[in-house]
Amino acid sequence: MPPPPPPRGGGGGGGGCFYSPRGGGPPPAARWGPGAGRGGPNGRGGAPLRGARAALFTGAGRVFVAAIEPAGAVDFVQPEIMMRDAQDFDGGDATLVIGPGMGDSVSAMRVLFKALEGKAALVIDADALNLIADSPDLQGRLAQREATAIVTPHPLEAARLLGVTSAVVQGDRLAAARELASRLNAVVVLKGSGTVIANAGGAVVINPTGNAGLATAGSGDVLAGMCGSLLAQGWQAWEAAIGAVWVHGAAAERLVAQGSGPIGLTAGELPVAARAVLNALAR
Ligand SMILES: NC(=O)C1=CN([C@@H]2O[C@H](COP(=O)(O)OP(=O)(O)OC[C@H]3O[C@@H](n4cnc5c(N)ncnc54)[C@H](OP(=O)(O)O)[C@@H]3O)[C@@H](O)[C@H]2O)[C@@H](O)CC1
Ligand SMILES: Nc1ncnc2c1ncn2[C@@H]1O[C@H](COP(=O)(O)OP(=O)(O)O)[C@@H](O)[C@H]1O
Protein backbone atom coordinates (compact mmCIF):
# COMPACT_ATOMS: atom_id res chain seq x y z
CA MET A 1 0.00 0.00 0.00
CA PRO A 2 1.38 3.43 -0.86
CA PRO A 3 2.04 6.04 1.81
CA PRO A 4 -0.65 8.69 1.98
CA PRO A 5 -0.42 11.65 -0.37
CA PRO A 6 0.87 14.88 1.20
CA PRO A 7 -1.71 17.32 2.49
CA ARG A 8 -2.91 19.80 -0.08
CA GLY A 9 -2.68 23.49 0.54
CA GLY A 10 -0.82 23.15 3.82
CA GLY A 11 -4.02 22.62 5.77
CA GLY A 12 -5.98 25.31 7.46
CA GLY A 13 -8.56 25.71 4.73
CA GLY A 14 -11.14 23.24 5.79
CA GLY A 15 -13.84 23.09 8.33
CA GLY A 16 -15.38 20.23 10.15
CA CYS A 17 -18.38 19.57 12.26
CA PHE A 18 -18.97 16.83 14.77
CA TYR A 19 -22.35 15.95 16.14
CA SER A 20 -22.63 15.19 19.81
CA PRO A 21 -25.50 14.58 22.20
CA ARG A 22 -24.29 17.51 24.23
CA GLY A 23 -21.51 19.98 24.21
CA GLY A 24 -19.54 18.99 27.30
CA GLY A 25 -20.17 19.02 31.03
CA PRO A 26 -22.80 16.85 32.68
CA PRO A 27 -26.25 17.08 31.09
CA PRO A 28 -29.29 18.13 33.11
CA ALA A 29 -30.66 15.09 34.90
CA ALA A 30 -34.00 15.47 33.13
CA ARG A 31 -32.37 14.64 29.85
CA TRP A 32 -31.56 11.17 31.04
CA GLY A 33 -35.20 10.17 31.38
CA PRO A 34 -37.42 8.03 29.18
CA GLY A 35 -38.20 9.57 25.84
CA ALA A 36 -34.63 10.61 25.25
CA GLY A 37 -34.31 7.75 22.77
CA ARG A 38 -33.22 4.13 23.07
CA GLY A 39 -29.86 5.16 24.41
CA GLY A 40 -30.53 8.83 25.03
CA PRO A 41 -27.82 11.21 26.16
CA ASN A 42 -25.28 8.79 27.40
CA GLY A 43 -22.19 10.36 28.92
CA ARG A 44 -20.32 10.00 25.63
CA GLY A 45 -19.96 13.69 24.88
CA GLY A 46 -16.20 13.14 24.84
CA ALA A 47 -16.46 11.32 21.54
CA PRO A 48 -17.07 14.30 19.22
CA LEU A 49 -14.59 16.43 21.13
CA ARG A 50 -11.93 13.80 20.54
CA GLY A 51 -12.76 13.74 16.85
CA ALA A 52 -12.78 17.52 16.67
CA ARG A 53 -9.34 17.72 18.33
CA ALA A 54 -8.03 15.13 15.91
CA ALA A 55 -9.30 17.27 13.03
CA LEU A 56 -7.63 20.39 14.44
CA PHE A 57 -4.30 18.64 14.97
CA THR A 58 -4.29 17.24 11.45
CA GLY A 59 -4.89 20.54 9.72
CA ALA A 60 -8.62 21.32 9.58
CA GLY A 61 -8.70 25.07 9.97
CA ARG A 62 -12.04 25.71 11.61
CA VAL A 63 -13.74 23.01 13.61
CA PHE A 64 -17.19 23.06 15.16
CA VAL A 65 -18.92 20.61 17.44
CA ALA A 66 -22.65 20.75 16.82
CA ALA A 67 -24.42 19.35 19.85
CA ILE A 68 -27.80 17.68 19.69
CA GLU A 69 -28.61 18.66 23.24
CA PRO A 70 -27.88 22.26 24.33
CA ALA A 71 -24.17 22.82 23.90
CA GLY A 72 -21.65 23.96 26.47
CA ALA A 73 -20.19 27.32 25.58
CA VAL A 74 -16.59 26.25 25.27
CA ASP A 75 -14.27 23.25 25.26
CA PHE A 76 -11.80 24.40 27.90
CA VAL A 77 -9.21 21.81 26.84
CA GLN A 78 -9.36 22.92 23.21
CA PRO A 79 -10.97 26.35 23.10
CA GLU A 80 -10.26 26.63 19.36
CA ILE A 81 -13.23 24.32 18.81
CA MET A 82 -16.45 26.26 18.30
CA MET A 83 -19.53 24.88 19.99
CA ARG A 84 -22.91 25.05 18.28
CA ASP A 85 -26.39 23.58 18.65
CA ALA A 86 -27.04 21.07 15.89
CA GLN A 87 -30.73 21.94 15.55
CA ASP A 88 -30.12 25.42 14.16
CA PHE A 89 -26.55 25.01 12.88
CA ASP A 90 -26.07 25.49 9.18
CA GLY A 91 -22.71 23.99 8.30
CA GLY A 92 -23.01 25.10 4.69
CA ASP A 93 -20.62 23.01 2.65
CA ALA A 94 -18.44 22.10 5.65
CA THR A 95 -17.42 18.47 5.89
CA LEU A 96 -19.56 16.71 8.47
CA VAL A 97 -18.42 13.93 10.78
CA ILE A 98 -21.58 12.44 12.17
CA GLY A 99 -22.14 9.73 14.73
CA PRO A 100 -19.53 9.68 17.52
CA GLY A 101 -21.36 10.04 20.82
CA MET A 102 -24.50 11.12 18.98
CA GLY A 103 -26.93 8.71 20.61
CA ASP A 104 -30.13 7.54 18.98
CA SER A 105 -32.72 10.09 20.10
CA VAL A 106 -35.35 11.49 17.77
CA SER A 107 -33.23 14.65 17.53
CA ALA A 108 -30.22 12.59 16.49
CA MET A 109 -32.27 10.88 13.80
CA ARG A 110 -33.52 14.25 12.54
CA VAL A 111 -29.99 15.63 12.31
CA LEU A 112 -28.77 12.52 10.50
CA PHE A 113 -31.64 12.75 8.03
CA LYS A 114 -30.76 16.39 7.32
CA ALA A 115 -27.10 15.49 6.83
CA LEU A 116 -27.95 12.73 4.37
CA GLU A 117 -30.23 15.12 2.47
CA GLY A 118 -27.50 17.77 2.28
CA LYS A 119 -24.65 18.11 -0.15
CA ALA A 120 -21.74 18.17 2.29
CA ALA A 121 -19.07 15.49 2.30
CA LEU A 122 -19.80 13.11 5.17
CA VAL A 123 -17.88 10.84 7.48
CA ILE A 124 -20.38 8.49 9.10
CA ASP A 125 -19.39 6.60 12.24
CA ALA A 126 -20.66 4.94 15.40
CA ASP A 127 -24.26 5.77 16.40
CA ALA A 128 -25.09 7.18 12.97
CA LEU A 129 -24.14 3.82 11.43
CA ASN A 130 -26.43 2.00 13.82
CA LEU A 131 -29.32 4.34 12.97
CA ILE A 132 -28.70 3.73 9.27
CA ALA A 133 -28.49 -0.04 9.85
CA ASP A 134 -31.97 0.12 11.41
CA SER A 135 -33.49 2.02 8.49
CA PRO A 136 -33.71 0.80 4.88
CA ASP A 137 -34.89 4.31 4.02
CA LEU A 138 -31.70 5.92 5.34
CA GLN A 139 -29.59 3.24 3.63
CA GLY A 140 -31.28 4.13 0.35
CA ARG A 141 -30.74 7.84 0.90
CA LEU A 142 -27.05 7.28 1.61
CA ALA A 143 -26.64 5.08 -1.48
CA GLN A 144 -28.30 7.70 -3.66
CA ARG A 145 -26.29 10.68 -2.45
CA GLU A 146 -24.05 12.35 -4.97
CA ALA A 147 -21.62 13.85 -2.46
CA THR A 148 -18.75 11.94 -0.95
CA ALA A 149 -19.26 9.66 2.01
CA ILE A 150 -16.78 7.69 4.09
CA VAL A 151 -18.28 5.18 6.51
CA THR A 152 -16.11 3.85 9.31
CA PRO A 153 -17.68 0.78 10.94
CA HIS A 154 -16.06 -1.54 13.43
CA PRO A 155 -16.93 -5.18 12.77
CA LEU A 156 -20.18 -5.17 14.76
CA GLU A 157 -21.39 -1.99 13.08
CA ALA A 158 -20.53 -3.49 9.68
CA ALA A 159 -22.43 -6.65 10.63
CA ARG A 160 -25.50 -4.62 11.57
CA LEU A 161 -25.36 -2.77 8.26
CA LEU A 162 -25.03 -6.00 6.31
CA GLY A 163 -27.59 -7.92 8.37
CA VAL A 164 -25.11 -10.65 9.34
CA THR A 165 -23.10 -11.52 12.44
CA SER A 166 -19.73 -9.99 13.26
CA ALA A 167 -18.25 -13.52 12.88
CA VAL A 168 -19.33 -13.47 9.22
CA VAL A 169 -17.74 -10.04 8.74
CA GLN A 170 -14.51 -11.17 10.39
CA GLY A 171 -14.55 -14.40 8.39
CA ASP A 172 -14.01 -12.48 5.14
CA ARG A 173 -13.21 -8.85 5.89
CA LEU A 174 -12.36 -7.96 2.30
CA ALA A 175 -15.68 -9.28 1.00
CA ALA A 176 -17.62 -7.56 3.78
CA ALA A 177 -15.98 -4.18 3.14
CA ARG A 178 -16.50 -4.48 -0.63
CA GLU A 179 -20.14 -5.49 -0.25
CA LEU A 180 -20.82 -2.60 2.12
CA ALA A 181 -19.10 -0.10 -0.17
CA SER A 182 -21.17 -1.30 -3.08
CA ARG A 183 -24.47 -1.26 -1.15
CA LEU A 184 -23.92 2.17 0.40
CA ASN A 185 -22.11 3.76 -2.55
CA ALA A 186 -19.41 4.97 -0.17
CA VAL A 187 -15.81 4.48 0.79
CA VAL A 188 -15.81 1.95 3.62
CA VAL A 189 -13.22 1.77 6.38
CA LEU A 190 -13.71 -1.59 8.10
CA LYS A 191 -11.75 -1.08 11.31
CA GLY A 192 -9.65 -3.59 13.24
CA SER A 193 -6.16 -5.01 13.07
CA GLY A 194 -5.44 -4.68 9.35
CA THR A 195 -8.13 -2.09 8.62
CA VAL A 196 -9.71 -2.68 5.21
CA ILE A 197 -10.57 0.26 2.96
CA ALA A 198 -12.91 -0.44 0.04
CA ASN A 199 -14.78 1.62 -2.51
CA ALA A 200 -17.94 1.12 -4.53
CA GLY A 201 -15.90 0.24 -7.62
CA GLY A 202 -14.51 -2.87 -5.90
CA ALA A 203 -11.03 -1.54 -5.06
CA VAL A 204 -9.77 -2.70 -1.70
CA VAL A 205 -6.59 -2.18 0.36
CA ILE A 206 -5.39 -3.34 3.77
CA ASN A 207 -3.68 -0.78 5.97
CA PRO A 208 -0.27 -1.87 7.30
CA THR A 209 0.17 0.58 10.20
CA GLY A 210 -1.07 0.50 13.79
CA ASN A 211 -0.77 -1.69 16.84
CA ALA A 212 -2.72 -3.04 19.79
CA GLY A 213 -2.41 0.31 21.58
CA LEU A 214 -5.25 1.47 19.33
CA ALA A 215 -7.62 -0.92 21.06
CA THR A 216 -8.52 1.82 23.52
CA ALA A 217 -11.80 3.67 24.04
CA GLY A 218 -12.28 6.47 21.57
CA SER A 219 -9.53 5.76 19.08
CA GLY A 220 -12.22 5.22 16.46
CA ASP A 221 -13.59 8.70 17.18
CA VAL A 222 -10.11 10.09 16.53
CA LEU A 223 -9.96 8.24 13.21
CA ALA A 224 -13.34 9.64 12.14
CA GLY A 225 -12.09 13.15 12.92
CA MET A 226 -8.95 12.58 10.89
CA CYS A 227 -10.94 11.30 7.89
CA GLY A 228 -13.08 14.45 8.12
CA SER A 229 -10.03 16.64 8.43
CA LEU A 230 -8.41 15.33 5.26
CA LEU A 231 -11.71 15.54 3.36
CA ALA A 232 -12.13 19.14 4.53
CA GLN A 233 -8.65 19.93 3.21
CA GLY A 234 -9.64 18.79 -0.26
CA TRP A 235 -8.51 15.19 -0.35
CA GLN A 236 -10.74 12.85 -2.34
CA ALA A 237 -12.63 10.28 -0.27
CA TRP A 238 -10.48 7.30 -1.25
CA GLU A 239 -7.20 9.09 -0.52
CA ALA A 240 -8.60 10.69 2.64
CA ALA A 241 -9.70 7.32 4.02
CA ILE A 242 -6.44 5.57 3.18
CA GLY A 243 -4.38 8.52 4.41
CA ALA A 244 -6.24 8.95 7.68
CA VAL A 245 -6.09 5.24 8.53
CA TRP A 246 -2.38 5.13 7.68
CA VAL A 247 -1.54 8.22 9.77
CA HIS A 248 -3.75 7.04 12.68
CA GLY A 249 -1.80 3.76 12.77
CA ALA A 250 1.53 5.49 12.32
CA ALA A 251 0.69 7.82 15.21
CA ALA A 252 0.15 4.81 17.46
CA GLU A 253 3.46 3.32 16.30
CA ARG A 254 5.20 6.60 17.09
CA LEU A 255 3.70 6.70 20.59
CA VAL A 256 4.75 3.11 21.29
CA ALA A 257 8.28 3.82 20.02
CA GLN A 258 8.39 6.71 22.49
CA GLY A 259 7.26 4.47 25.37
CA SER A 260 3.71 5.83 25.62
CA GLY A 261 2.13 2.47 24.84
CA PRO A 262 0.84 0.02 23.94
CA ILE A 263 -0.07 -0.35 27.62
CA GLY A 264 -2.14 2.63 28.67
CA LEU A 265 -2.07 4.47 25.37
CA THR A 266 -5.08 6.80 25.32
CA ALA A 267 -7.02 8.07 22.33
CA GLY A 268 -6.39 11.64 23.44
CA GLU A 269 -2.65 11.23 22.75
CA LEU A 270 -3.17 10.27 19.12
CA PRO A 271 -3.86 13.70 17.61
CA VAL A 272 -0.52 15.24 18.67
CA ALA A 273 1.34 12.17 17.40
CA ALA A 274 -0.66 12.28 14.16
CA ARG A 275 0.33 15.91 13.70
CA ALA A 276 4.00 14.94 13.99
CA VAL A 277 3.54 12.09 11.50
CA LEU A 278 1.82 14.35 8.96
CA ASN A 279 4.40 17.10 9.29
CA ALA A 280 7.22 14.58 8.85
CA LEU A 281 5.56 13.40 5.62
CA ALA A 282 5.07 16.95 4.38
CA ARG A 283 8.73 17.95 4.93
N1 LIG B 1 -15.43 8.29 26.25
C1 LIG B 1 -16.38 8.38 25.31
O1 LIG B 1 -17.07 9.37 25.25
C2 LIG B 1 -16.55 7.23 24.35
C3 LIG B 1 -17.62 7.27 23.47
N2 LIG B 1 -17.81 6.33 22.53
C4 LIG B 1 -19.03 6.43 21.76
O2 LIG B 1 -19.93 5.51 22.33
C5 LIG B 1 -20.87 5.09 21.36
C6 LIG B 1 -20.91 3.57 21.23
O3 LIG B 1 -19.63 3.06 20.84
P1 LIG B 1 -19.35 1.47 20.66
O4 LIG B 1 -19.82 0.93 19.39
O5 LIG B 1 -17.91 1.28 20.99
O6 LIG B 1 -20.34 0.90 21.71
P2 LIG B 1 -20.12 0.08 22.99
O7 LIG B 1 -21.28 0.37 23.89
O8 LIG B 1 -18.78 0.22 23.55
O9 LIG B 1 -20.23 -1.40 22.39
C7 LIG B 1 -21.46 -1.80 21.86
C8 LIG B 1 -21.25 -3.17 21.29
O10 LIG B 1 -20.29 -3.05 20.24
C9 LIG B 1 -19.30 -4.04 20.39
N3 LIG B 1 -18.04 -3.57 19.88
C10 LIG B 1 -17.38 -2.43 20.22
N4 LIG B 1 -16.25 -2.32 19.54
C11 LIG B 1 -16.19 -3.42 18.73
C12 LIG B 1 -15.25 -3.88 17.77
N5 LIG B 1 -14.14 -3.16 17.49
N6 LIG B 1 -15.50 -5.04 17.12
C13 LIG B 1 -16.61 -5.74 17.40
N7 LIG B 1 -17.54 -5.36 18.30
C14 LIG B 1 -17.32 -4.22 18.95
C15 LIG B 1 -19.25 -4.31 21.86
O11 LIG B 1 -18.79 -5.63 22.03
P3 LIG B 1 -17.87 -6.02 23.29
O12 LIG B 1 -16.72 -5.03 23.27
O13 LIG B 1 -18.73 -5.87 24.50
O14 LIG B 1 -17.45 -7.41 22.99
C16 LIG B 1 -20.69 -4.15 22.29
O15 LIG B 1 -21.39 -5.38 22.13
C17 LIG B 1 -20.44 5.75 20.06
O16 LIG B 1 -21.20 6.93 19.90
C18 LIG B 1 -18.99 6.08 20.31
O17 LIG B 1 -18.58 7.18 19.51
C19 LIG B 1 -16.86 5.25 22.32
O18 LIG B 1 -16.02 5.71 21.27
C20 LIG B 1 -16.06 4.91 23.57
C21 LIG B 1 -15.55 6.11 24.32
N1 LIG C 1 -4.88 -4.60 17.33
C1 LIG C 1 -5.08 -3.50 16.59
N2 LIG C 1 -4.20 -3.17 15.62
C2 LIG C 1 -4.40 -2.07 14.86
N3 LIG C 1 -5.47 -1.24 15.00
C3 LIG C 1 -6.38 -1.53 15.94
C4 LIG C 1 -6.25 -2.67 16.78
N4 LIG C 1 -7.31 -2.69 17.62
C5 LIG C 1 -8.07 -1.62 17.33
N5 LIG C 1 -7.52 -0.92 16.31
C6 LIG C 1 -8.04 0.32 15.72
O1 LIG C 1 -8.56 1.13 16.79
C7 LIG C 1 -9.75 1.81 16.37
C8 LIG C 1 -10.91 1.39 17.27
O2 LIG C 1 -12.07 2.03 16.86
P1 LIG C 1 -13.52 1.60 17.39
O3 LIG C 1 -13.69 0.12 17.27
O4 LIG C 1 -14.49 2.47 16.72
O5 LIG C 1 -13.43 1.91 18.95
P2 LIG C 1 -14.02 3.13 19.82
O6 LIG C 1 -15.52 3.10 19.64
O7 LIG C 1 -13.62 2.79 21.22
O8 LIG C 1 -13.41 4.38 19.34
C9 LIG C 1 -9.94 1.44 14.92
O9 LIG C 1 -9.31 2.41 14.09
C10 LIG C 1 -9.22 0.09 14.80
O10 LIG C 1 -8.80 -0.19 13.48
Automatic annotation (TrEMBL):
Residues 1-47 are annotated as: Disordered. SUPFAM superfamilies: Ribokinase-like (SSF53613). AMP binds at K191, G192, S193, G194, T195, G220. Coiled coil: none annotated. It holds the Pfam family Carb_kinase. It comes from the Bacteria. The keyword Repressor does not apply. Keywords: ATP-binding, Lyase, NAD, NADP, Nucleotide-binding. (6S)-NADPHX binds at A47, G101, H154, D221. InterPro entries: CARKD, Ribokinase-like. Its EC number is 4.2.1.136. PROSITE patterns: YJEF_C_3. CDD domains: YXKO-related. Its cofactor is Mg(2+). The keyword Nucleotide-binding applies. Residues 34-47 have a biased composition (Gly residues). Belongs to the NnrD/CARKD family. HAMAP family: NADHX_dehydratase (MF_01965). Catalyzes the dehydration of the S-form of NAD(P)HX at the expense of ADP, which is converted to AMP. Together with NAD(P)HX epimerase, which catalyzes the epimerization of the S- and R-forms, the enzyme allows the repair of both epimers of NAD(P)HX, a damaged form of NAD(P)H that is a result of enzymatic or heat-dependent hydration. This is ADP-dependent (S)-NAD(P)H-hydrate dehydratase. It comes from Massilia genomosp. 1. The lineage of its organism: Bacteria, Pseudomonadati, Pseudomonadota, Betaproteobacteria, Burkholderiales.
